[in-house]
Design a protein that fits this description.
Shape: globular
Largest sheet: 6 strands, mixed
Number of strands: 13
CATH superfamily of the largest domain: Ribonuclease H-like superfamily/Ribonuclease H
CATH architecture of the largest domain: 2-Layer Sandwich
Structural class: alpha/beta
Number of domains: 3
CATH topology of the largest domain: Nucleotidyltransferase, domain 5
Helix content: 40-55%
Bound molecules: iron/sulfur cluster
CATH class of the largest domain: Alpha Beta
Amino acid sequence: MRRKLLSKSLFKASEPCQKKLVLLAYHRHLGTEATNAWAQSGDEIGQLARLLFPDGVTLGGVGKSPEELAADTKEAMEGPRQALFEATFLSEDLVCRADIVARHPLGGWHLIEVKSGKSLKPEYLQDLAFQSLVLTQAGIDLTQVSLAHVNPDYIYPGGAIVPEQFFHLEDVTALMAEEIPNLLPKVEKALELIRSSAIPLTEVNTFCRSPFPCPFYDHCHKDVHPHSVHFLTGLNRKKVDEFRSEEKRLITDLTDRDISQGFQRRIRDSLAKDRTLVDRSLPTTLAKLQWPLVFVDFEAISPAIPLYPGTKSFQRMAFQFSCHTVADPHSNPEPGGFLHPGGERPDSAFIQALTPFFQKAGTIVYYSDFEVNLLKSLSQEGIPGAADCETLIRRKGLDLYKLIKQGIYSPAFDFSFSIKDVLPALVPHLSYDSLAIQDGDAAAKAWIKMTAPTTSTEDASEIEQNLLTYCSLDTLAMVELVKVLRTFEATV
Ligand code: SF4
């Protein structure tokens, strides 16, 4: 077997789960394709950062071994270029690929890691420490180490983005002297794991699904009890370990002293009785609904690279809403909505189209606090009419997510209160499964593509249809959920 090298991504996988490192290194076929919502914006930011060094050259090549790539890097460093992008460095069993290495005016090399964040974070320092370690061990004369992150004060003036203004270059050379010694024992441990290739006996925990679902989730959960304590919503890893050390391995082993939240106790009791449990707050709240009910769902973009003059990186802008209006308990839902065609900042037209629906609503129903927070940020930016919409949603709003979380649990929710998990349990005839767009991130990407001048009219109209279908299902799902929930009586 070819020797396995410890890359930065493998090293990062070892924290907090050492088993993941070994599975990634030797048993990738047991996992699914990992996806990362930020990958694309990271790519765009990386491309933009390369403009900081116009004479730079991109290295790499599909199918080349790390040894070949490192040899290409060595050759390029001996050449005339001022900067190399994606250069590979190899030192014994460690390997890394650097975003940018540039010749330093004082001699030696300047290592630059590009991040799409707006400030220095501890995990960025660890990434840089890993790379600094590999470069230094590979014999590179490292004069400076910097992080290039998005300048939080940058406001896009229009036209071509000037990378020197867009990025803030933070010199972290001095911090490396502290970071590298801290990193060394962890790197040694990760090297030990990768050299041995034995799969560690790490037990599944909350880190298997958070912050991102692990690609080996299904593989590692094959024989796990469906009521394992780590599934319980709202627990952290430490708490799970604590319960396990007390031999409380199942959610049904937990006492009222162990869990204080009402929804956690309801989950436990619902599993024990294997039936849906309803708190009295659910029918009480639903009895107070004011008709007409207006169900709303918003879609927004927050592009890393600003699209419109006057906006900042990651500034949230609303481009679409769907709504269904139900006049009274016996009426059918009436669909409505708005989708901005692009070409200019969409928020003002969005608010203008939304306002009449909010004004006529008795109760405004939404799912989670995304809608309220979005209106708050548009209001703070001074988008005309946004403050009034925020006032209306705060006065007339009902957060269906909170109502469900605090009022009902069915074992079929599978420990989640997301609309995509609650819907099939309560309204089995409605499903997101066949939709071309499945979530808000995909909707944002689709809208950016739909409004790009390079997209053909045919493609744009297909995307438009997909966006309308996706967003409309979100509000129709809420209509049907409320209809079903109104039939439940309290079980406690
Ligand atoms: S599913 Fe969990 S235990 Fe398995 S590799 Fe992933 S993080 Fe580790």
